[in-house]
Design goal:
By secondary structure, the chain is of the alpha+beta class. The protein contains 4 helices and 6 strands, in the order αααββαββββ. The protein has a 6-stranded mixed beta sheet with strand order 2-1-6-5-4-3. The longest helix has 13 residues.
Length: 125
């Protein structure tokens, strides 16, 4: 298997960091990963901006899904400074298809956009 291109590898590393509950609960670490213009559409269809998602994640009332497990992660360069990743996650029996855009900035690769769509596992066979 070939190694992913550097931008794709950096985006995958960033996504894996964001799956870590310690990163998700640290303003400093979130600041290192989220683009200033970050936007998200979550599994409920709710839209988020950077400030709101950080405040929500840091809140004592924030939902704590526990450790998220990622699978089927792959990425492609859409342009020199843009990478698209797709992958699936599972936490506590809840699954989501995920899609994210990572932009290259002076600070490195930052998550620019993320969308999650819930799904049920297809029956085998």
């Amino acid at each position: 298997m070939t190694e992913p291109a550097p931008g794709v590898a950096a985006a995958i590393e960033g996504e894996l960091r964001l799956l870590d509950p310690l990163v998700r609960s640290s303003a400093e670490l979130l600041d290192q990963v989220l683009h200033p213009d970050y936007r998200e559409v979550d599994t409920t269809g709710r839209h988020w901006d950077r400030a709101t998602i950080i405040a929500t994640l840091l809140s004592d009332l924030a939902p704590r899904p526990g450790q998220l497990t990622a699978s089927r992660m792959s990425g492609v360069h859409l342009a020199d400074e843009l990478v698209h990743l797709t992958f699936d996650t599972e936490a506590r029996g809840r699954r989501a298809h995920r899609s994210s855009l990572w932009r290259l900035t002076a600070a490195g690769w930052l998550l620019y956009y993320h969308q999650a769509t819930p799904f049920d596992a297809a029956p085998e066979g």
